[in-house]
Amino acid sequence: MSDLTRLTAHQQAELLATGEVSSVELTRAHLDRIAAVDGAVHAFLHVDEHGAIEAARAADDRLSKGEPASPLDGVPIAVKDVIVTRGLPSTAGSRILEGWVPPYDATVTERLRAGGLPILGKTNMDEFAMGSSTEHSAYGPTHNPWDLDRIPGGSGGGSAAAVAAFEAPLAIGTDTGGSIRQPGAVTGTVGVKPTYGAVSRYGLIALANSLDQAGPVTRTVLDAALLHELIGGHDPRDSTSLTDPVPALVEAVRAGAAGDLSGLRVGVVKELGGEGFQPGVEARFAESVELLRDAGAEVVEVSCPHFEHALAAYYLILPSEASSNLARFDAMRYGLRVTPEGDPSAEDVMRATRDAGFGDEVKRRIILGTYALSSGYYDAYYGQAQKIRTLVQRDFDAAFAEVDVLVSPTSPTTAFPLGDKLSDPISMYRQDIATIPANLAGVPGISVPSGVADEDGLPVGLQVLAPQRADDRLYRVGAAVEALLEERWGGPMLAQAPELEVAR
Ligand SMILES: NC(=O)C[C@H](N)C(=O)O
């Protein structure tokens, strides 16, 4: 079998089930692909060849007995470095966790292992998930497989690039303000942020607890549904974990793929377009909306007037939570320890370690958050931001009283050149203008490829948002759009990506 890495995860699982390929062959094919292209892409911070092959052997054993552990048993996966993995380094893209090997697995990791998926390695990310380009990784940026001089999005640029470059058919991402969806949009991959609480946060190195959510990064909507069903569901170790059963997502994909959306009410969010949105992004978005209409959906415009303040509220709430979370990196418990010369006090060691271990963006947010929470400013900043958060939630409630799903472009622009926004944090933050409202309200969102922009030939994503716990609607609509667009393109969008130079 020649190019196993080009197959979707579902196709790989089918070949495993019929015995046409083994998990060892599949895993080896992806490890070879990583060896060939990751020198240029830099999607991985750590590759676990030995562990992946061991897990593949165990999968082959189960498969040969006709006892698969899950529908994805034996299909390899990559995991964002913010999710802890027992025995495998987990740095969250930070110098401060360099060399730390967790003694336990995150619940997501546990479920992947129990499902039989060989873990290929850990993917690159902006430090502690702060960023939209992976340029804030302490270990150097990831490059977009569509154009190596451009960003793959962030913070989960490594996961998205690994999937887009055929280094892994599946990956895990985390989304606090858009870190799964925006990388998905700019690399032509599918990214899902589930309903808050739908996937356990146990073992996810926290950025902002009230916003963080782990989810699938894949090349097709069906693959995302298969992975989401595997990692989702209640976990008593996460106090915010939902007790609901996982909705029937694969079934929703099958329903959507038939391309009939009659009876579905779709709202186009008026505030998520216009100024700041690239013309080619808006053109692809308008086309996707037409497709939805052609498939029988009723499309109306809805207004969410408080969304314009969502970014500002996020940049008070997130730094506040992050400054408190990152206090645990104190040189005493994990990773790096820098000991200044002389007779340093414990505080001197902490100061020196945090100075050397955190990058500029992390320091910026710790300072912002500490200030926003400080006595005398708390009400004016953190308190006000929480009020805006409530107003954003009410905008969603009002919108979902009228429509079943909301749509917008995922990201206002296509992938920008590396280095372009590093000196202008606000313009970097604006990448998440369309994705942040969902995190503030805890609602689920998906980004599906919707073509390439005319001006630069780079991928554009369509975002679909649904009410809390209605993740199945994302999959139904996402699968319909995917099927209709593939008909138009004559195949998957990633097939249009330029071939990477295979060299190290
Ligand atoms: N973590 C995220 O979801 C990314 C967002 N761009 C941030 O910088 O916070």
TrEMBL record:
<comment type="subunit">
    <text>Heterotrimer of A, B and C subunits.</text>
</comment>
<dbReference type="InterPro" id="IPR036928">
    <property type="entry name" value="AS_sf"/>
</dbReference>
<dbReference type="GO" id="GO:0005524">
    <property type="term" value="F:ATP binding"/>
</dbReference>
<dbReference type="GO" id="GO:0030956">
    <property type="term" value="C:glutamyl-tRNA(Gln) amidotransferase complex"/>
</dbReference>
<protein>
    <recommendedName>
        <fullName>Glutamyl-tRNA(Gln) amidotransferase subunit A</fullName>
        <ecNumber>6.3.5.7</ecNumber>
    </recommendedName>
</protein>
<dbReference type="InterPro" id="IPR020556">
    <property type="entry name" value="Amidase_CS"/>
</dbReference>
<feature type="active site" description="Charge relay system">
    <location>
        <position position="80"/>
    </location>
</feature>
<keyword id="KW-0067">ATP-binding</keyword>
<dbReference type="InterPro" id="IPR000120">
    <property type="entry name" value="Amidase"/>
</dbReference>
<dbReference type="GO" id="GO:0050567">
    <property type="term" value="F:glutaminyl-tRNA synthase (glutamine-hydrolyzing) activity"/>
</dbReference>
<feature type="domain" description="Amidase">
    <location>
        <begin position="25"/>
        <end position="474"/>
    </location>
</feature>
<keyword id="KW-0436">Ligase</keyword>
<feature type="active site" description="Charge relay system">
    <location>
        <position position="155"/>
    </location>
</feature>
<comment type="similarity">
    <text>Belongs to the amidase family. GatA subfamily.</text>
</comment>
<dbReference type="InterPro" id="IPR004412">
    <property type="entry name" value="GatA"/>
</dbReference>
<keyword id="KW-0648">Protein biosynthesis</keyword>
<dbReference type="InterPro" id="IPR023631">
    <property type="entry name" value="Amidase_dom"/>
</dbReference>
<feature type="active site" description="Acyl-ester intermediate">
    <location>
        <position position="179"/>
    </location>
</feature>
<dbReference type="Pfam" id="PF01425">
    <property type="entry name" value="Amidase"/>
</dbReference>
<keyword id="KW-0547">Nucleotide-binding</keyword>
<keyword id="KW-0808">Transferase</keyword>
<comment type="function">
    <text>Allows the formation of correctly charged Gln-tRNA(Gln) through the transamidation of misacylated Glu-tRNA(Gln) in organisms which lack glutaminyl-tRNA synthetase. The reaction takes place in the presence of glutamine and ATP through an activated gamma-phospho-Glu-tRNA(Gln).</text>
</comment>
<dbReference type="GO" id="GO:0006412">
    <property type="term" value="P:translation"/>
</dbReference>
<dbReference type="GO" id="GO:0016740">
    <property type="term" value="F:transferase activity"/>
</dbReference>
